[in-house]
């Protein structure tokens, strides 16, 4: 239940294709800045005056971000599964009907069968108020006994009669327990709804109904009930909190699957594509494809040349054009010596679109045609990494090095693999090797600095960055990443200075602009001065430049959430889901969106809880 401040910075690794550690960055940010963070098994439930928000921690199975822990071993996964199963069982029993007669202690009055009043709709009319009360109590006790003996039909009959005498939420809830035992979920919903109608804060009935909704596949409804129950009992019931997490995941996963099926594979934002492409050292165009060479657009080679030209625009349109041209080049064929290169390029864009299988096939084909084209191994490795197969990635690096042991790109990307796996000293070695082979590639220097920071060598890291600003004084990325590390050390004014420099340099570029420094500045202003207005402005600016930038969208959502602008925040989370490229990213975005939506619904449906929540916030702050 404590605020867990992350010890590692939310630094984004420089461009592996999977460099969107945005969710990670945000959940770190949230836990650093929220008043209260309840961390319950992976979900941080954050209570603020404005409401409750869940932060699904993104360590669940994304090889995406550089901060991610290495993937779980098989054994570890099995262990987790087992724990989950136990959890689910515990939860089942928590919401299972041992409550029968729960709210009042069971009176030891032994009611024998013939003492049980026999009433029906007509006879009940004749009873006095006191008699009804007395009968109801007796019928309920008999019902509990029948329930205890697992005679559910009899128990249902008795509770029904008790309800005729006196409509009491406990009787409805107990009858729901019987339906629950008989797996009649709709009837459970009906009875618990009646119980909740009589007592809106009846936690057990809420949990029972949630469980029934879950069985009926109505995850949103289930989520709403579990959330309400969590708030009512002050997050004391671990099982309900875990159910919230489980349902969020279930909901998001099933919806993500549905959405992925109908989705046209789009390229990610130009910021993202640009970052990926620049993680390879710039090479001159293959001889014969330069601008000076006249090629017909109706030939494969002509399309290849067109694609390369379009890429150099570095805009979203340019990248789409390039992707289309590479597709066409291979359709037209007759590529001769360029065939392996063409497969490499098409594979690259397919990979960026998230079409993993097809991309893998292209890269393998490229390798088959020309094993000396080491970039294809590297790209295949980074795809394997994204697909959660670091072993295969490692193999590809080995093969690439066999082809050419002096190619700096290979070392750089292998270092990225080590970095992602948390093997920082291995990573540092490979970055250094890459630098030794080619001092001019800036990202090896930047990443070395970040890695040193991660290893706790703050002084050497800062020295690396100071050196970078001397040797690469015109490269905005240097200032951006330097700024991130300064921000992590809460050296706010210095961080701002670096981000401003990066922003200025980016803006001076003739073509597209990397918006990360804008977003970083927004985060800094927020963390330093709680300056929402300025932070929002910067994010808006980023979104004007790159409307598809997922990091800007997610940051905006969080800024709005922090200010209690929940409905607006929801819009941005939904936008983040639209922009998500992979199923994993989509699940993340949908979880946030659904958690936010649930929060809005809880507030609408249970206005009385709002005061409870803010009261609680005050106590815990
Ligand atoms: C190996 O890679 C380097 C750097 O890209 C390149 O200069 C060199 O020509 C390559 N060697 C071979 C044998 O391909």
TrEMBL record:
<dbReference type="Pfam" id="PF00515">
    <property type="entry name" value="TPR_1"/>
</dbReference>
<dbReference type="GO" id="GO:0045039">
    <property type="term" value="P:protein insertion into mitochondrial inner membrane"/>
</dbReference>
<dbReference type="GO" id="GO:0005741">
    <property type="term" value="C:mitochondrial outer membrane"/>
</dbReference>
<feature type="transmembrane region" description="Helical">
    <location>
        <begin position="35"/>
        <end position="56"/>
    </location>
</feature>
<keyword id="KW-0472">Membrane</keyword>
<keyword id="KW-0677">Repeat</keyword>
<keyword id="KW-0802">TPR repeat</keyword>
<keyword id="KW-0496">Mitochondrion</keyword>
<feature type="repeat" description="TPR">
    <location>
        <begin position="476"/>
        <end position="509"/>
    </location>
</feature>
<dbReference type="InterPro" id="IPR019734">
    <property type="entry name" value="TPR_rpt"/>
</dbReference>
<dbReference type="GO" id="GO:0015450">
    <property type="term" value="F:protein-transporting ATPase activity"/>
</dbReference>
<feature type="region of interest" description="Disordered">
    <location>
        <begin position="60"/>
        <end position="119"/>
    </location>
</feature>
<feature type="repeat" description="TPR">
    <location>
        <begin position="374"/>
        <end position="407"/>
    </location>
</feature>
<feature type="compositionally biased region" description="Basic and acidic residues">
    <location>
        <begin position="81"/>
        <end position="92"/>
    </location>
</feature>
<feature type="repeat" description="TPR">
    <location>
        <begin position="408"/>
        <end position="441"/>
    </location>
</feature>
<dbReference type="Pfam" id="PF14559">
    <property type="entry name" value="TPR_19"/>
</dbReference>
<keyword id="KW-1133">Transmembrane helix</keyword>
<dbReference type="GO" id="GO:0030150">
    <property type="term" value="P:protein import into mitochondrial matrix"/>
</dbReference>
<feature type="repeat" description="TPR">
    <location>
        <begin position="340"/>
        <end position="373"/>
    </location>
</feature>
<feature type="repeat" description="TPR">
    <location>
        <begin position="136"/>
        <end position="169"/>
    </location>
</feature>
<keyword id="KW-1000">Mitochondrion outer membrane</keyword>
<dbReference type="Pfam" id="PF13181">
    <property type="entry name" value="TPR_8"/>
</dbReference>
<comment type="similarity">
    <text>Belongs to the Tom70 family.</text>
</comment>
<dbReference type="InterPro" id="IPR005687">
    <property type="entry name" value="Tom70"/>
</dbReference>
<keyword id="KW-0812">Transmembrane</keyword>
<dbReference type="GO" id="GO:0006886">
    <property type="term" value="P:intracellular protein transport"/>
</dbReference>
<protein>
    <submittedName>
        <fullName>Uncharacterized protein</fullName>
    </submittedName>
</protein>
<dbReference type="GO" id="GO:0030943">
    <property type="term" value="F:mitochondrion targeting sequence binding"/>
</dbReference>
<feature type="repeat" description="TPR">
    <location>
        <begin position="550"/>
        <end position="583"/>
    </location>
</feature>
<dbReference type="Pfam" id="PF13432">
    <property type="entry name" value="TPR_16"/>
</dbReference>
<dbReference type="InterPro" id="IPR011990">
    <property type="entry name" value="TPR-like_helical_dom_sf"/>
</dbReference>
